[in-house]
């Protein structure tokens, strides 16, 4: 499959501190790539770099066009949606109001109503709570809402930052099953940052392992998942 996202020699910094040191990675059209690594490895910064939230050097090519140096809103309009760590829901607004905000950049207003139905099919609990204030939802429901709000952009690429954080194992399993369904049914490509390496590798088709801002291992998710030495040395399971 052709690459939807290609990243070459990516560097990123916060002020004088360089965090990423020449990353090369990609996401295939319709594929799921996961980025793994310990806390502080540069995973979250990688997602922020892709959507223009940090100062970068190197090339970021999305759908054949360079997007490095572009404003975040411009990148969003191209079809890149970011679900940050901490979920970022608007807690004082209702579920439905949060979803409407997710579609704010779209001009095809006639199709937005259909996308509400599509999101509610993926997350039936949100339909039940559509009038409810987002701040009163459970942690798992807030994560579902954050993902749904991103889907209302109708993205080609979904950036997911630690979607399992702080959630019960049962909810995490359900959420990842829905990610797989969204990928298969809606053909949304995904770049997934995740601490739960076993779960991420079971969902992804390609994986990159970061250590202090550098790629130390890359390959198919299946190969890395089945490499006992890699799992013990780097992934802790």
Question: How does this structure look, described?
Answer:
- By secondary structure, the protein is of the alpha/beta class.
- The chain folds into two domains: 3-79 and 155-235, Rossmann fold (3-Layer(aba) Sandwich), CATH 3.40.50; 87-153, no CATH class.
- It is built from ten helices and ten strands.
- It has helices at residues 43-50, 72-78, 95-102, 109-122, 124-128, 139-151, 169-186, 197-203, 221-226, 228-235, and strands at residues 3-14, 17-28, 32-36, 55-62, 65-66, 80-83, 157-161, 189-193, 206-211, 214-220.
- A six-stranded mixed β-sheet has the order 6-7-8-3-9-10, sandwiched between helices.
Topology as a string of helices (H) and strands (E): EEEHEEHEHHHHEHEHEEHH
Instruction: Give the strand content.
Output: 25-35%
* Mean of residue pLDDT values: 93
Which shape, going by the Cα principal axes? globular
What count of domains describes the coordinates? Answer: 2
- Euclidean distance between termini CA atoms: 31 Å
The helix tally amounts to 10
Order of strands across the main sheet = 6-7-8-3-9-10
Q: What is the CATH topology classification name of the largest domain?
A: Rossmann fold
CATH architecture of the largest domain: 3-Layer(aba) Sandwich
| CATH domain class name of the largest domain | Alpha Beta
Return residue spans where pLDDT drops below 50 for at least 5 consecutive residues. Answer: none
């Amino acid at each position: 499959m052709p690459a939807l996202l290609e990243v070459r020699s990516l560097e990123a910094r916060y002020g004088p501190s360089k965090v990423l040191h020449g990353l090369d990675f990609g996401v295939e059209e319709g594929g799921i790539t996961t980025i793994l690594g310990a806390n502080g490895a540069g995973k979250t910064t990688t997602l922020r770099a892709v959507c223009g939230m940090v100062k970068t050097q190197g090339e970021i090519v999305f759908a054949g066009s360079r997007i490095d140096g572009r404003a975040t809103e411009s990148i969003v309009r191209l079809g890149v949606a970011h679900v940050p760590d901490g979920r970022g829901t608007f807690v004082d607004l209702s579920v439905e109001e949060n979803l409407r905000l997710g579609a704010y950049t779209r001009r095809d207003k006639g199709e937005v109503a259909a996308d509400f139905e599509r999101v509610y099919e993926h997350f039936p609990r949100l339909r039940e709570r559509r009038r409810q204030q987002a701040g009163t939802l459970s942690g798992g429901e807030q994560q579902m809402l954050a993902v749904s709000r991103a889907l209302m952009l109708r993205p080609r690429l979904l950036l997911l930052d630690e979607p399992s954080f702080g959630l019960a194992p049962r909810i995490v399993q359900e959420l990842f099953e829905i990610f797989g369904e969204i990928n298969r049914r809606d053909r949304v490509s995904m770049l997934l940052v995740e601490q739960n390496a076993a779960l991420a590798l079971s969902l992804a088709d390609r994986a990159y392992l970061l250590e202090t801002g550098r790629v130390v291992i890359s390959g198919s998710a299946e190969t890395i998942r089945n490499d006992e030495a890699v799992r013990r040395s780097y992934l802790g399971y």
